[in-house]
Write a structure and sequence with these properties.
Elements lengths: L1 H9 L17 H5 L3 E6 L1 H14 L6 E5 L5 E5 L17 E6 L5 E6 L4 H6 L7 H6 L2 E4 L5 H4 L6 H15 L5 E5 L18 H6 L15 H6 L3 H6 L9 H5 L1 H8 L3 H4 L2 E4 L11 E3 L16 E5 L6 H14 L11
Parallel strand pairs: 1-5, 1-6, 6-7, 7-8
Antiparallel strand pairs: 2-3, 2-4, 4-5, 9-10
Length: 336
C-alpha cells in the first residue's frame, strides 16, 4: 500500500522547462507518418519506448515480438496496461518489439545490455542490421553498462567515436539520430515523497566523501580503486558508478560533429538531466511484492521508474525535440 501511495504522489509533480512549452504527444502518429522510429538501449531505453507507446493511447496498436535473428513475429502482447519497468521488457534482449501506429508509422525497440557497445562498434555483424539500415529515426543510449567493460571510463570517448563512425556508415543517408543522456539513481528512493530541490542535491548524494568539489569531475584512478570492497564500503556513495555516463556523454555530440556535415546535422543529444531531481517515483521495493512474489528477495530499484511516472517526460522531451528539428512526414498524395 505504501508503494502504491508513493507512486501516486509522484504523479502530482510535472516538469516545466525554462523558455519553452512542452507540447503533448497528441498528433505524433500523424507527424511520423509512414516512417520508422527505433529505440536501441538497455532497460531504461525500454522504459522510454513504453512511455511513448502508452502516451500515444489509441494511436498505438498492439505490441508484436519479433525474433532478433529473423525479425519474424513470435508472439503478440498488449501494451495498454500499467506495469513497472522490470515487468515490461517485451521479451527481453532476445526479441524486437514492434508497435504499428495509426498513420502507418512503426516504432521498434531492440533492448540490449552489456553486449551493446561491442555490437554497436561492429554493426555490420549484428543480426538486426537490416532493421538499423531501414529506420528513419534512431534513439540510442548505452546507459550504465559501460562501467562493466571500462570501470574508469578511460575509453568512453574512443567508444563514442567508433560507434558514431559505424552509424554514419550503416544508417541510410536521410536517417536522424538522437542520443538520450542517462539518468542517475537515488539512494534511499524508497523514502522519497517529492522531487529534490535541485540536480545538485541528487549528485551530492553520490559524491565521494569529502565535499562537493568532486561532484562533476571523474578521477579514473580513484574510480578503479573504488571497485575494491574496502573502498566501496567506506569512501564512496556511488557503488554503481551512476555519475559516470552523464559526465562523459557530451562525447557523443562531439564525435558526431567530426563526421560528415550531413550526418552531424541529423544528430541530436537529448538532455534529460532534469529527471535527476526525481528521487520520487522509482520502482524501489515494488517488485518485492509484485510479479516475482513477496517470498523472493528482489533488490531495491532506485534507478528505474514506475509507470506512469517521471520517465514519461523522456517521451515528451523526445517528441518535442523531433517535432522542432525534423520536418513532418509528407502526407500521401501531397504535391511535391
Amino acid at each position: 500500500a505504501n508503494e502504491r501511495l508513493r507512486s501516486a504522489e509522484a504523479l502530482s509533480w510535472s516538469w516545466r522547462p525554462d523558455g519553452c512549452r512542452l507540447e503533448p504527444v497528441r498528433g505524433f502518429s500523424e507527424w511520423l507518418g509512414e516512417r520508422t522510429l527505433l529505440f536501441v538501449g538497455d532497460s531504461l531505453t525500454a522504459q522510454h519506448f513504453y512511455s511513448l507507446v502508452w502516451l500515444l493511447g489509441g494511436d498505438a496498436g498492439t505490441e508484436e515480438l519479433l525474433d532478433l535473428e529473423s525479425l519474424r513475429v513470435q508472439q503478440g502482447a498488449g501494451v495498454n496496461r500499467c506495469a513497472t519497468s522490470m515487468n515490461s521488457e517485451g521479451g527481453g534482449a532476445s526479441r524486437v518489439s514492434r508497435v504499428r501506429l495509426r498513420h502507418g508509422g512503426v516504432v521498434y525497440k531492440v533492448m540490449r545490455h552489456g553486449e551493446l557497445e561491442d555490437e554497436l562498434r561492429n554493426l555490420s555483424r549484428v543480426s538486426w542490421l537490416k532493421l538499423v539500415r531501414s529506420v528513419d529515426i534512431l534513439l540510442l543510449n548505452v546507459g550504465h553498462w559501460h562501467h562493466r567493460r571500462d570501470p574508469g571510463f578511460a575509453r568512453y570517448e574512443e567508444d563514442a567515436e567508433a560507434v558514431t563512425r559505424q552509424l554514419e556508415l550503416q544508417l541510410k543517408p536521410s536517417a536522424h539520430v538522437v542520443y538520450r543522456t542517462t539518468n542517475v539513481g537515488h539512494p534511499g528512493c524508497e523514502s522519497a515523497a517529492r522531487p529534490l530541490r535541485s540536480r545538485l542535491e541528487a549528485w551530492s548524494a553520490l559524491a565521494p566523501e569529502g565535499g562537493d568539489a568532486d561532484l562533476f569531475t571523474w578521477n579514473s584512478t580513484a574510480q578503479l580503486a573504488r571497485q575494491t570492497k574496502s573502498l566501496k564500503d567506506s569512501l564512496f556513495r556511488d557503488p554503481h558508478s551512476w555519475r559516470g555516463p552523464p559526465l562523459f556523454e557530451a562525447a557523443w555530440a562531439e564525435s558526431a560533429a567530426r563526421r560528415r556535415p550531413d550526418f552531424a546535422r541529423r544528430f541530436w543529444l537529448l538532455n534529460v538531466s532534469f529527471v535527476d531531481q526525481r528521487a520520487d517515483g522509482h520502482v524501489a521495493g515494488a517488485m518485492r511484492a509484485g510479479v516475482l512474489g513477496s517470498r523472493q528477495r528482489f533488490p531495491l530499484d532506485c534507478l528505474h521508474y514506475c509507470f506512469p511516472g517521471p520517465a514519461d517526460y523522456w517521451a515528451l522531451a523526445l517528441v518535442n525535440l523531433l517535432r522542432r528539428q525534423v520536418p513532418a512526414a509528407r502526407q500521401r498524395g501531397a504535391a511535391a
